[in-house]
Amino acid sequence: MRKLWSALAFSQGSATSPATDVNPDHAFTTMTTSESARIIFTADDFGLDWRVNEAVENAVRRGVLTSASLMTAAPAAADAVKRAKALPDLRVGLHLVLIDGVAKLSPQQIPDLVDTSGQFRQQMARVSTGFFFNRSIRRQLAAEIRAQFEAFAATGLALDHVNAHKHFHLHPTIGSLIIDIGRDYGLRSVRLPDEPHLVRHTRLFGPSWLEAVATKLACRALRRRLDAAGIHHNDQVVGIRHTGHMTEDRLLEAIQQLSPGLTEIYLHPAVEGPLTPAMADYDHAGELAALISPRVRNVLVRRGLTPTHFSVLANA
Predict the structure, then answer these.
(1) How far apart are CA 96 and CA 77, in angstroms?
(2) Residue 41 contacts residue 254 (beta carbons within 8 Å)
(3) Burial 156-191 (b: 16+ CB within 10 A, else e)
(4) Are 294 and 69 in contact (CB under 8 A)?
(5) Could you tell me which of 8, 145, 238, 278 has the fewest CB atoms within 10 Å of its CB?
(6) Would you state the torsion angle of the CA atoms of residues 77, 79, 80, 81, taken in this order, to the nearest 10 degrees?
(7) Domain 2-315 CATH assignment equals 1.10.760.10
(8) Are 283 and 62 spatial neighbours (Cβ–Cβ below 8 Å)?
(9) Closest by alpha carbon to 15, among 242, 175, 314, 282?
(10) How far apart are CA 77 and CA 292, in angstroms?
(11) Are 170 and 215 in contact (CB under 8 A)?
(12) Using an 8 Å Cβ cutoff, are 72 and 151 in contact?
């Protein structure tokens, strides 16, 4: 069970099978307007680096980006906030970081979660089992989550949504803490990282298949928890299977295959890369190019789709 949860907690979709090539121009002839389908384009890791922030600004001003998720403790967070305040069409949410990043609290305050430099421990899969059984670890986790909510509130930006780096909010303890603590900060919407057909595109009973099944089960549990709490969420996401490689053709394919309901397509754009060792193979510039692509914009127009954001759900 621990091994299975480890696969789930740190899922990035990298182990899944590659997509077949698509011909988006051929797909245009089958597109029809659908009032039942809605779409959000979100840039994750806002504040990680100026190159991410620059890409977000470009994608809002010149493209289809409507939303970004802010890392409050990241090196370029202040620059991200400044840019966001100059972009009235951009909605910003909190990208909770509990792995592969720097904590908001000091190592003395959360010694079981971070190393002496304040970086979250890389063996968080093992630490995450303590979320269930160790009260001290749970208290530290709650304190760090609250600190990141507090840091977001201090920016003065309206909280559009919340999600977690590497989809760590699928962990039931983290998901519950986000709901409980988030209420104090106006939480109204949370990303549900439920990607259609994720299980179908993996090899039966292989490691990635088990990972996909675990993700699907965890999404069902999170959906029930959010619904019970009255927290809004999207119906599905696109971006797990091809994380870091949501290029123009894949974005066009996703729009062509859009399911009814609200779909969030999330990307990791930057004007250039690489940004971190964990994202060494990401095509950051390719994802930015997709977001500002005239072809993407034209397809949205032909389908009668206007990109939206989570605040629409909360205000409905």
Answers:
(1) 13
(2) no
(3) ebebbbbbbbbbbbbbebbbbbbbebbeeeebbbbb
(4) no
(5) 278
(6) 90
(7) no
(8) no
(9) 242
(10) 23
(11) yes
(12) yes
Give, for all 316 residues of the chain, the pLDDT tens digit.
334 344 444 333 333 333 333 333 333 223 333 458 999 999 999 999 999 999 999 999 999 999 999 999 999 999 999 999 999 999 999 999 999 999 999 999 999 999 999 999 877 667 787 788 899 999 999 999 999 999 999 999 999 999 999 999 999 999 999 999 999 999 999 999 999 987 665 655 455 778 888 899 999 999 999 999 999 999 999 999 999 999 999 999 999 999 999 999 999 999 999 999 999 999 999 999 999 999 999 999 999 999 999 998 877 7
Q: Taking the model in full, what pTM does it have?
A: 0.87
CA atoms within 13 A on the CB side of 40: 32
Query: Per-domain residue ranges for the chain?
Result: 2-315
Question: Which of 219, 175, 211, 176 is CA-nearest to residue 194?
Answer: 219
- Among left, alpha and beta (phi > 0; psi -120 to 50; other), residue 213 is alpha
